Amino acid sequence: MIRVLVALVRRDLVLASRVGGSGALSLVFFLMIVALVPFALGPDLNLLSRIGPAILWLSAVLATLIGLDRIFQADEEDGSLDLMTASPAPLELVVLAKVLAHWLTTGLPLALASPLFGLLVALSPTAMGATALTLLVGTPALTFIGAVGAALTASIRRGGLILAIVVLPLMIPTLIFGVSAVDSALGGTVPFATPLIILGALSLIAAVVGTLAAAAALRWSD
């Protein structure tokens, strides 16, 4: 099973590198939001640094939506998903591999780039490090939640808007605890580890529930 998982992840990573797309678009979209917000708020650096973590987290949530609909839709269109469904490998394993590959090409780059983008909102080094860590822990939850919506809309052309409406409310708890963790690292009343552990728990729960729910949605669509 591990060999199958690695092979499927490698396949999707190779396809993503050849085609390009969602990973680069997510980073560009992330950068656009972070760069535009300071123009709207004005030159108040104290205000920017205070709400900077929330800006980065909100930007990450919106950027994660880019390309979510293509997790299963591309394979649905060319028939690859039917072959994977009919293969001896469990469909849950296929879903897990595809979601992991998507996170490696979208969520992980967002987390790694957040310290650099944090300069645009006047974040301190401590805030940059805390934001990057929370995004690293929390973006898997966003991806697995999005995978459920992607599975539900896999057979719908131009289902991106429906996907966003379905999954955005489910991403709110991750957003709340991500921003709360950064605030705790900057001197909040709650220890930094508490919301960070909750954020990690949300990612683990989303990985289990999201994988099972996405696999069930794909079976139902057949």
UniProtKB/TrEMBL annotation:
Task: Note whether Transmembrane helix occurs among the keywords.
Answer: yes
Entry coiled-coil feature ranges: none
- Main location (coarse class): membrane
User: Is Membrane set as a keyword in this record?
Assistant: yes
According to Swiss-Prot or TrEMBL, what is its membrane topology?
Multi-pass membrane protein
The alphabetized UniProt keywords are: Cell inner membrane, Cell membrane, Cytochrome c-type biogenesis, Membrane, Transmembrane, Transmembrane helix, Transport
Question: Transmembrane residues, as ranges?
Answer: 21-42, 54-72, 132-154, 161-180, 192-218
Spell out the protein name for this chain.
Heme exporter protein B
